[in-house]
């Protein structure tokens, strides 16, 4: 199981532990919490 990085808070998490995912520009991003996912959805260009 690969580890992935939450781009909002910078935390590394196991893909299986991701609480939320967001598809953006053809990539899937993984988040530790709904709050991080929400932040990303609002400002995706700040994190990509
Ligand atoms: Zn996070």
From TrEMBL:
Record-level Gene Ontology MF annotations: oxidoreductase activity
SUPFAM superfamilies: Ferritin-like
TRASH domain residues: 6-44
A Pfam family annotated for this UniProt entry: YHS
Domain of life of the organism encoding this protein: Bacteria
InterPro entries the UniProt entry points to: Ferritin-like_SF, RNR-like, TRASH_dom, YHS_dom
Descriptive protein name: YHS domain-containing protein
């Amino acid at each position: 199981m690969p580890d992935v990085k939450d781009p909002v808070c910078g935390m590394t998490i196991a893909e299986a532990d991701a609480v939320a995912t967001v598809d953006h520009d053809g990539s899937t991003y993984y988040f530790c919490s709904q709050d991080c996912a929400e932040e990303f959805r609002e400002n995706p260009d700040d994190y990509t």
